[in-house]
Amino acid sequence: MPPNNVSSRDLQAIHAQTRDIYDRVAEGYDAHRSKVLFEQDWLDRFLSCLPQMPKILDVGCGAGEPIARFLVEQGCALTGVDVAPGMLSLARERFPDHRWLEADMRSLDLGSMFDGVLSWNASFHLTIQEQRDTIPLLAKHVAPSGALMFTIGPSEGEGTGTVEGEPVYHASLHPEDYQSILSELGFSNIQIGLEDAKCNLHSIILATHKKP
């Protein structure tokens, strides 16, 4: 995580505003969000682990561009989940034939499983403890032999970023901690890419071969 000089109290306040910020700036964020799919290499890896026309759960789906569009074009049956109604409204307009749900990943319980669960640039808005509590909820929605992929930080820590000029909270466990948690949840193949130069320096974890 990047160095942080924000006080713990201020970090807590910023963290509490995440939903409202993304809802408020949805249209501006969508307009400025690059539609260049730099994520494609990792999305291809993710899809290569899944059956044809898989059921995908996209947690923190945002407005659906460009990741949801790519998944739809690959024949996926998509369920998108986001905490910000403004983001979901845009996604529903674009892809009305798919399912879009307002929900908080920290209490996610859809009562169904998916071939793959994806969370791109979303779970790192949770505190370290919230991530520890939420990863099992994401894994619970992965069908046996399925895959889970999400972005992480390259090292443990807390910090802030910006969205449309608004401060937002970021946090990450140590990558080895993610690997340990996912192993305990039954994933037998775990790939980690830290600050991948081909993926706009994102850090990604892909866990596959979930045991029944």
Key terms:
seven-stranded mixed sheet; 8 helices; alpha/beta; Rossmann fold
Order of helices and strands: HHHHEHEHEEHEEEHEE
| Strands, total number | 9
Estimate the global geometry from the Cα principal axes: globular
Rg: 16 Å
* Count of the separate structural domains: 1
Determine the mean pLDDT: 94
Q: Which fold name is given in CATH as the topology?
A: Rossmann fold
**What strand line-up does the widest sheet have?**
3-2-1-4-5-9-8
Distance between the termini: 34 Å
**Portion of residues within helices:** 25-40%
CATH architectural designation: 3-Layer(aba) Sandwich
Quick one: biggest sheet?
A: 7 strands, mixed
- The CATH homologous superfamily is termed Vaccinia Virus protein VP39
Fraction in beta strands: 25-35%
Which CATH top level class fits?
Answer: Alpha Beta
Number of helices: 8
The low-confidence runs, each spanning 5 or more residues with pLDDT under 50, are none
